[in-house]
Amino acid sequence: MDKLKISTPDDSSNNYTTYFGISGDDYRMTNRHYMFGKYNNNYINHSRNKSSHEPIIDGIKDWLTDNLGLRSKGRGEFTNYIKLGDPDNPCIIMFSKTGTRYNINGMIQAKETLLLALARTVYRSCFNTDPKKLTECVYNHIMLPENVSYALENMALFHWYKKGERVDVRFNVKMISEDECAMEISDGVWGPINVNKLNTYMNYYWKGKARGTWKFLSPKKLWKKLLKTSPTENQQKVMIAFLEQNRTDDIVEERAISLIKDLEKQFPERVKVMWYSPGESNKSQVKGILVRGQIADWVITNNEYKSEIQAVSTYIFSTHLTNGGTYPTFKNGVLNGPICIDNMTRHSSVGDQFAARVYALLNDTMTVQIVSTINRYVNDQHYKGQENQRIDFDEVTNEELP
User: Fold this and answer.
1) Residue 212 region, left (φ>0) first, then alpha (ψ -120 to 50), else beta?
2) What would the pLDDT profile of 27-37 be if each residue is shown by its tens digit?
């Protein structure tokens, strides 16, 4: 076994660590033990996976694909034994291919599902090296793939085209047995689908992988595929109306706004939300948020020039300029910024980015240490417990936000 480093989800250059090794059959060398370090380095950097929904997990999965020799489609049968966690008491997982089918410890699943289950287990081993817990982890993710878990927790995604315009929606999913789910595709109409098929369905509608037959479906075809019969004209109209009431952007933003309202209730003395007035048109509803951190006060605003990883702007309040440049005046001081704070992925809504920064800045003593771009805006008067460089939240109006 050798040490494996996985970059942390920040710009601190820190790493999570675990131990990993492979032995057994290999298409490059038969009946010889090898260490992964001889073929690939022992460092996983998630930055190249920012376009994915889970950069760290997908980065580990890509690394495993290379080190298990699965990048080539022509690899034949094999049996490999993977060791991970504690070198003195490792978790041992058998990963093999028989014929065209892959399995982990005899549990057959699609190669993609097995690799993701293994990737999540490798990540877990950075924090818990108990072999029993790691074995349970890989089993759980094989029996209920991440695509299905996502659908159960966040609703299933679906899209079709209406007069050339793409319509993105979500609908509820429930488990109805150990290996079957049901999707609510119309008002009170639930279509059964087994876990493996839902996994394939989500591979396309969530991850964009056009494999299998659960892709490029119209609402009518989806109804027929789930219920084994075509909808009537009236059923189809009701279905489309139902789906259009559940557009993805609206659902995601509504959830984020609900979270922001909960944060304001939970921290009434430390979080103040500034809402757009009725005459101001903005889908996110939130114009800005004031956050009282441990070392400073912060202002987060809706970014006029949005990017996928930076849809909101973050400022730190100071009674004087921290460094050169011109910054917006604010009450009895200035707002230093905007500070470059990128999201880890490109899939977060404006509301989610607001909420994420509120959580981070409530504990700004830690955030300043792990987000290097903030450091140059912090001065020697920003320290835990200080009361000199603070904003009177009650006096701030919407018009004063930058």
Assistant:
1) left
2) 443 333 344 44
Q: How far apart are CA 393 and CA 398, in angstroms?
A: 11
Kindly report the pTM of this predicted structure: 0.65
pLDDT, tens only, 41-66: 788 887 666 666 778 888 899 899 88
Q: Rg (Cα) of the chain, in Å, rounded?
A: 25
- Asked if residue 268 and residue 224 are part of one domain, the reply reads no
Q: Are residues 33 and 92 in the same domain?
A: yes
The candidate with the shortest Cα–Cα distance to 22, out of 114, 118, 109, is 118
The residue segments making up the domain with residue 135 are 2-143
> Cα 261 from chain centroid?
22
Domains of the chain: total = 3
Burial class from Cβ neighbours inside 10 Å (0-12, 13-18, 19+) for residue 399 reads exposed
For residues 21 and 34, what is the distance between their CA atoms, to the nearest angstrom? 8
* Spatial CA neighbour of 367 closest among 316, 309, 303, 306: 316
